[in-house]
């Protein structure tokens, strides 16, 4: 018992000694900080505060779209995420894997967005934006950014009710983004013109090359001529009755083009010796040379959106129309991301558009979506123009699409999409493979994870 008592007394003394030593060390450190380096502690606090402010100004978001797709025919050509492989009519794929970094410090904002899928990693956007310090309504944006044309390009793929943007968007403005500089006017809340946004800028015109979607084998931006394209859009949106009613109207214009590599330009349609319609080359004998000039890409667009909340849920109507002139090749109307391998230029008048009907079911997490769209690359021609013996190619054919979709919003971070796209091509008896409608409908089941 005596030994236990002595042991306990020793432990208590050791504890008191350690506490005394610790107190002396802390007092010594405090005295040293106050006497020898009075600002060191404050400097450390300031440094830590700056690091915390940097983190507070940085916002990281992203989403992963993992999906399964099925189509009617092996190797089907499609705008629903790219063509299928020759021996396959179904696939798993990561359609988009986005990580977006947004750093905002006062009137300056910098954005970097990357895309990572099984096909590789590529740049999506990288730009800086600065607003004026007086009205805060004007801003200048420079870098790789969305083209300011139409509604569909501006809407994030994470928010869209269907898997892909329209066929005409993917053809005329592929991959949505381009490298350039833009001036914007957007009055802040409380100003008379609040709700109006006007964007105008100049861009390379070649867009962003993404592996698997362009003629380039690697990601990047390659400007192959000196011409720059103008893009402008004015849009006005307004909410009424405590946001129960919302509407928006917009107009857009694109004016650009790319270099003529020779004088062989086909922009007229006439009859050949057999009596069939065919392309006619422009007469350049009595005019100045076209080589080195600009092959036109001129688009006009209009868009409208309307939504209303009732006991049935939120009903949304949305539409967009585009028409204009597109320079292309004999068998391709897609805007080029690199210098065309076929130098002869074909100039076509086109139109396209889409209409959405979207119904959120009451106050549930379920939503139905219906979309009709079309793209007519050459409005001078129709099915009767493609008789047997025609010299026209598949590039002239009109496409119409009707899509039916269902979305389930589990929460803000997870969404399920089921969508069936019914694709119909113009019938052409004189174009091999297009004597009847192709079997290229696509079913998409997508799981979207968002953070």
Give me the secondary-structure topology.
Layout: H1 2-35, H2 40-57, E1 58-71, E2 90-105, E3 108-117, E4 120-131, E5 138-146, H3 167-172, E6 177-185, E7 196-203, E8 229-240, E9 245-259, E10 265-271, E11 277-281, E12 294-310, E13 313-328, E14 345-360, E15 366-376, E16 399-411, E17 414-425, E18 442-450
Parallel strand pairs: 10-14
Antiparallel strand pairs: 1-2, 1-18, 2-3, 3-4, 4-5, 5-6, 6-7, 7-8, 8-9, 9-12, 10-11, 12-13, 13-14, 14-15, 15-16, 16-17, 17-18
Tell me about this structure:
This protein has 451 residues and is mainly beta. It has one domain (71-450): Porin (Beta Barrel), CATH 2.40.160.10. It is 13% helix and 47% strand. The protein has three helices and 18 strands. The chain has helices at 2-35, 40-57, 167-172, and strands at 58-71, 90-105, 108-117, 120-131, 138-146, 177-185, 196-203, 229-240, 245-259, 265-271, 277-281, 294-310, 313-328, 345-360, 366-376, 399-411, 414-425, 442-450. Strands 1-2-3-4-5-6-7-8-9-12-13-14-15-16-17-18 form a 16-stranded antiparallel β-barrel. Strand 3 and strand 4 form a beta hairpin. The termini are far apart. Mean pLDDT is 89; it is low at 1-9.
Which terms would index this structure?
mainly beta, Porin, 18 strands, 16-stranded antiparallel barrel, 13% helix, 451 residues, 3 helices
